[in-house]
Amino acid sequence: MHAKAGDRIVVRARHQGEADRDGEILEVRGADGAPPYWVRWSADGHTGLYYPASDAYIATPV
């Protein structure tokens, strides 16, 4: 996974009926765009360090 500050990260819901989560990557802490990422989550504005799993993907703004 490769990202830069300003990209959006989306985490797919694990169960039917649940919503996906998304947030803005504020800072990339790994080398060359690798995780972990400092993320501001859209739902509640909470910020935190996030290590993505296979249910996450980067949505680059156009």
Please, could you describe this protein's structure?
There is one protein chain. With 62 residues, the protein is mainly beta. Helices cover 0% and strands 40% of the residues. The protein contains no helices and five strands. Strand 2 and strand 3 form a beta hairpin. The protein is globular.
Secondary structure elements and pairings:
Blueprint: E1 8-11, E2 21-28, E3 37-41, E4 47-50, E5 56-59
Antiparallel strand pairs: 1-2, 1-5, 2-3, 3-4
Q: Strand order, biggest sheet?
A: 4-3-2-1-5
Series of secondary-structure elements, N-terminal to C-terminal: EEEEE
C-alpha Rg (nearest Å): 11 Å
Oligomer: single chain
Percentage of residues assigned to helices: under 10%
Instruction: Write down the domain tally.
Output: 1
Helix and strand composition category: mainly beta
Short key terms for the protein model shown above:
about 60 residues, mainly beta, 5-stranded antiparallel sheet, 5 strands, about 0% helix, about 40% strand
Compact description:
By secondary structure, the chain is an all-beta fold.
